């Protein structure tokens, strides 16, 4: 499954939850908007933190979503991979395995850069 497929699944999930559980998902989305809206950190910094947390949490959907967000916010391949390695530093070998998903997502969302 591609990173884009995972982001599409997230969007379908949220749309379905809005129909069946609007108060719960809307409360989460409001909280997310407030947390992301704080100006103390730029959006690229926030997304890089989210990338690291996604790798540590071993969540392939989160990795896809936040790599896409980091790219959209202007983060570079090296910044994204560095965030992934910070997760490995703090979470160890299991997080290292999720650099596979991270690398795949970076390659998908930054296709113009050489993969090496």
TrEMBL record:
Q: Does the keyword Membrane apply?
A: no
UniProt keyword annotations, A-Z = Oxidoreductase, Peroxidase
* Domain named Carboxymuconolactone decarboxylase-like: residues: 36-104
Name any one GO molecular function.
peroxiredoxin activity
Q: Which InterPro entries match?
A: AhpD-like, AhpD_core, CMD-like
Q: Which Pfam families match?
A: CMD (PF02627)
User: According to the lineage, what is the superkingdom?
Assistant: Bacteria
Protein name as annotated: Alkylhydroperoxidase like protein, AhpD family
Q: Which organism is it from?
A: Acidithiobacillus ferrivorans SS3
């Amino acid at each position: 499954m591609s990173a884009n497929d995972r982001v599409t699944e997230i969007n379908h999930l949220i749309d379905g939850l809005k129909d069946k559980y609007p108060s719960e998902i809307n409360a989460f989305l409001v909280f997310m908007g407030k947390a992301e809206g704080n100006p103390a950190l730029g959006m690229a910094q926030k997304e890089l933190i989210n990338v690291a947390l996604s790798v540590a949490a071993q969540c392939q959907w989160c990795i896809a979503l936040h790599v896409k967000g980091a790219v959209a916010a202007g983060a570079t391949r090296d910044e994204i991979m560095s965030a992934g390695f910070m997760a490995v530093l703090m979470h160890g070998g299991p997080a290292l395995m999720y650099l596979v998903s991270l690398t795949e997502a970076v390659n998908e969302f930054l296709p113009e850069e050489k993969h090496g």
